[in-house]
Write a structure and sequence with these properties.
The chain is α+β, with helices and mostly antiparallel strands and 238 residues long. 34% of the residues lie in helices and 20% in strands.
């Protein structure tokens, strides 16, 4: 952690920021209704460090959320300095994502009687990473090719969906409707058990998309309050 981050950490409550962000995601988003797919079929799914090691814990949620929101495809996330060491450059104006590290430490203090006492404590460090999709001149390994599938989308269903005029973006392992962007996120068809499962999942998310103000304008929060997400799922299942 740099000294700049250490000083900023005293002013920023990163844990509170992360908690608030996750709550906002849950309140604004719609979670998958079921999962007839496996993202692992299409390659690396979990966000990865420059070394290839996967991120863990809350960092997975934070980086997945950012990737879906901005349409990033590569699973790799690097610090500014890591990119520089590889001869690459973060593009000007790109915004990074905060990731955190929880650890344990010990410190020794002297009691009034002169005895040494060792105290254990926990700490949180944070730093900023950028998606490989935000960085120019990275080695090819940071942009793994998607796994191709022999399974093709159902042509008639694709024609029907196109008429809905709802934007669709590719995700790695999450099917969802994102109200803030008015888009549907879908894993590649190669991740699904069958083309019918892909179509059924896309149908489900399309129902969620009708909540937008310029469509049905459905707001379950007005009637069901804290149960709004559950009520919305019932609508999509009906």
């Amino acid at each position: 952690m740099t000294s700049q981050h250490a000083r900023a950490g005293a002013r920023r409550d990163i844990a509170a920021e992360i908690t608030a962000r996750i709550l906002i995601e849950l309140e604004a988003g719609v979670m998958p209704w079921r999962k007839p797919w496996d993202g692992a079929r299409t390659g690396a799914v979990l966000p990865r460090r420059a070394t290839g090691e996967t991120y863990r814990g809350v960092n997975v949620i934070l980086l997945w959320s950012a990737a879906i929101e901005r349409g990033y495809v590569s699973p790799y996330w690097l610090t500014f300095n890591q990119a520089v060491k590889l001869g690459a450059q973060v593009r000007k104006g790109e915004r990074g994502e905060v990731v955190v590290y929880y650890g344990h430490g010990k410190r020794t203090r002297i009691e009034e009687g002169g005895a040494e006492v060792e105290d254990a404590f926990r700490f949180l460090k944070w730093y900023v990473v950028f998606s490989a999709d935000q960085i120019d001149n990275l080695p090819a390994r940071f942009h793994p090719a998607r796994v191709e599938s022999d399974t093709a989308p159902i042509a008639l269903h694709e024609t029907w969906f196109d008429q809905l005029e709802i934007a669709r973006i590719a995700t790695r392992d999450l099917a969802c409707y994102i109200p803030s962007r008015d888009v549907i996120g879908m894993p590649p068809i190669a991740a699904f058990d069958t083309a019918e499962d892909y179509a059924a999942t896309l149908n489900h998310e399309s129902v969620h998309a009708t909540m937008a103000a310029h469509r049905v304008g459905r707001d379950m929060g007005k009637k069901f309050s804290q149960h709004a997400i559950a009520a919305e799922e019932l609508v999509a299942l009906s």
